[in-house]
């Protein structure tokens, strides 16, 4: 399968380049907006990190308090140990877990919102346009392969006939009459050049691609 990205003629090629640029710009803009949404939501990580840091700090305080309990004082030591045991029920582990859960939730929300903002408008344009461009490149490539095979095998005249009959059957009446003032007469008289050229132009190719090969110059005749 042969692909040809752009047609031979300047104006159709320019229109496709312009359309490709617009679609690419559209995709980049919406992808950037999605990235901005993601960055904005991820800014809420500060809250989750603050909760986690608070829990970690609270755990450090409890550890420092237990490490600082003096020994050898029966009543005071027992009282302080009971207080430390009571503080373990209110450790910062719950805050650390809650902060981590909030952090994970923020990441999920940021990703979901970014995709919801960016993907629909991108896919709405990219899928139909990409499908059309793929078919267009294949069609131009197939036409180019047709012309090349006909030229290589020396069947350019037969190829023009095929193109002329295809032009009569597929072109609109306006396109047909613009290509030839007498399409039927051209077919009857085997004048295929104008109709074949119109068909090649519609396919995105320059009609000169099917020009007959130049005959080699004969050496000058020398009289005896």
Provide structural commentary.
This protein is mainly alpha-helical. The chain folds into 2 domains: 10-136; 154-209, no CATH class. Helices cover 75% and strands 0% of the residues. The chain has 8 helices and no strands. The protein has helices at 10-42, 45-67, 74-88, 93-152, 156-170, 173-179, 183-188, 193-202. α1 (10-42) packs antiparallel against α4, α4 (93-152) crosses α5 and α5 packs across α8 (193-202).
Query: SS-based structural class?
Result: mainly alpha
The number of helical runs is 8
Rounded mean pLDDT is 82
Helix content: over 70%
What series of H and E elements makes up the topology? HHHHHHHH
Number of domains: 2
**Unreliable residue stretches:** 213-218
Q: Report the span from N to C terminus.
A: 56 Å
Largest sheet: none
SS elements, strand count: 0
Cα shape: rod-shaped
The fraction of residues in strands falls at under 5%
Radius of gyration, in angstroms, nearest whole number: 39 Å
Helices and strands in order:
Layout: H1 10-42, H2 45-67, H3 74-88, H4 93-152, H5 156-170, H6 173-179, H7 183-188, H8 193-202
Helix pairs in contact: 1-4, 2-4, 4-5, 5-8
Could you write a compact summary of the structure shown?
α1 (10-42) runs antiparallel to α4 (93-152), α4 packs across α5 and α5 (156-170) packs across α8 (193-202).
From the structure above, extract its key features:
rod-shaped, mainly alpha, 2 domains, 224 residues, 75% helix
